[in-house]
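Why does residue order matter? Because the sequence determines the fold. Keep that principle in mind as you read this record.
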Amino acid sequence: MPLEAVESPRLYRQIADQLRHLIDRREYPAGGRLPPERELAEKLGVSRPSVREALIALEVEGRVRIRMGSGVYVVERPVAPPTLIAAGEAPEGPFEVLKARELVESAICAEAAGAASAADIAALDDILRRMELPGLGSDELVALDRAFHVAIAASLGNAVLARFVGLLFDQRINPYFRQLASYFENAESWQEAVAEHRAIRDALAAGGGEAAQAAMRHHLQRSQERFSQSFGEGPPRTRAGDVGLSRIAGRS
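Structure:
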């Protein structure tokens, strides 16, 4: 039998696999509430964002239901898993994507501050003007958000960078990211994002590389914080005993 490459499973998939196994064993029965994110993170030895990615993955699979202000509840096992999961094509975790964007795009911004032309700044102004129009739907705002970030990379005149930033951004439309966004994106969060975009634009127009880099880093860090707000998990669970969660060594 030919040898096959061995890949390390993404961290959030390892967490989701453990929780799914415990649900299948009825350690967490249908209708019951899972432990809070904080407790799961402590038991597994991982970060809360990684736990959140796992919970979102399980919700997309139809294994749990997140109830804001109450907690995460187990539901009856679906008849068949979603096609995406069945095909073994699990997307990147939302927080991994945002962290990658923070590192990549802040560096691009530092370079773009010295390269952006008047026409490049005018293009950013046009995008920001359209983002502030009333009555825009989520899909329209996401498309304009993408255009803003790609336009900054394009100002460097490097098609590879512009395409790469677009590909990174497009991870935002995977099922897990969309599910996470459905809980935390609203008119207020979009207003904050547009204000952060404007700070980036102003730093680029002023030609300050460090300021532009810091503005982009701040924007993408704030994006991570917005998606990290509490689900509002209600009072602590009453536990009859310790459930068999295994720590995931060396990972966070």
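Strands lie at 64-67, 71-74.
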